[in-house]
């Protein structure tokens, strides 16, 4: 008797087995699997399965935190994360809109702060807010800055710079006349502070030095630092100050902390600072020039400063970065930042390097990431702090052990402060592994080359045409805002055209690897498997290619919205995992006026001004022409702008305002220029 064959299917498996399978699925694979058929779609609506996938891949994403807080379901969170990631990866945004007219702006934490008509206006973009917080600059300063009325009476100029925004608090620098600048932290949240005897003022202090000033804060802690000479030293160095914002005073919590021999002076290019878990992380990709020229490798130097730390010099640690033999670097494209890994919750060094790798004739952009320890994972620093303090007070310089070369079994981990006087060297467990050919092995998860294959078709733009560039680690995508002038067959002035250029990658599935694998790739994979310690290095990725948006045949009104004046002048941008915000010049009689444009990849960010592109538009031309300014919008008249982040505050008699802080309708409601791109 012939027994009939039974075909096993995924949805016929026991729940426990399906649960284990889902453990290895990220949110992209989870959604793709759910769309295989109706049965799997129904099974994968299960909250426990969805939660398991989130815990495995994106537990620190915004939607994941909302799910843990009970605001949305875990299955809904996976769907939202998928929508955003795919929209970014394939350059397929959901919306675009003109948010405001301004002279300068700051976009952080999903909130837009901009200066317009003697006011600071604050808009929550992630919440698609219809209201803005409006602060009258001069009225606020009259209340908080001593002797401001006297300076104002003498006609002193006021220059503002936006520094940082987080947790509803905006940090600004105010330069009034010829006096020392003021560092000001203001609560700009809609409801204001719950309990504070100083109203919205969180911190106020006059600074003697603002060279390379940076500010990082959350609701409870403030760190700010400058690059200047300290004490008797003739060489400038980084100095960091901590303030406890919960005390509602302007007193400094402790003395300044020095980052001795911490090379790198260009924030965002070779040095960066960020606050995680109430601790300040500092990272530099530069080394002392005298040291670097004698060693074949370079390192990241980093430190983590805790609140209320009593140390005088921060302990510096090192992580291997690269070998000089890997090829030269085109430094004009370099940038470095600190991000939060949405999968692990750890701080991540994210660095872009454009390199001539492996003797290639062309230089290729690559983003490298390196995980750092959380504060809770670090060993107790109490003993080390006491030791470093004692060492700093020793009058006799100590002898430093020479750096260990790359051929040694351990790379050095340096802790301590200002050079030979108080530096100690300890062996680091992080040793770069190499193939038998000497090539440094890096996890493919933490290395993303724009063109991994030299035979890939390229669509590159020179640096002058790349107005803004960033990397979106959530979508594993290079995100560039480029000027790609429209091709014209007629003789005349070429019109600029702003477009998105996105190059992303996705995980290569095993079936794809088997189909595309040739002899050379199999040999390389075998060589890596002999030296790798985990499957992470063997994970393969495939490029999605270069995507440009809008398309070449896009409507002119959409192109005009993205580039209102038809010239891409003075473009400044900022982005996060779900939005891109940039400013660009517009045609206006007033100097230094710019439109602030939003490109949204989150379908839940939908403003009233966004109209469906599927419907025929019967309205007049969009912003950018002289005859169509929206009624009720007063454009600022700014006479002196020194750079993109500093503006001059006008005389209050020119633009009178009744209150210091108030809530108003958002400016985008009056501008009423935007589009929504329907799917399907």
UniProtKB/TrEMBL annotation:
The record ties this protein, via InterPro entries, to:
F-box-like_dom_sf, F-box_dom
Q: Which residues form the F-box domain?
A: 7-53
Q: Which SMART domains match?
A: FBOX
SUPFAM superfamilies documented for this protein: F-box domain
Region labeled Disordered — which residues? 373-395, 508-541
Chain intervals with Basic and acidic residues compositional bias: 384-393
Taxonomy, superkingdom: Eukaryota
Q: Return the protein name.
A: F-box domain-containing protein
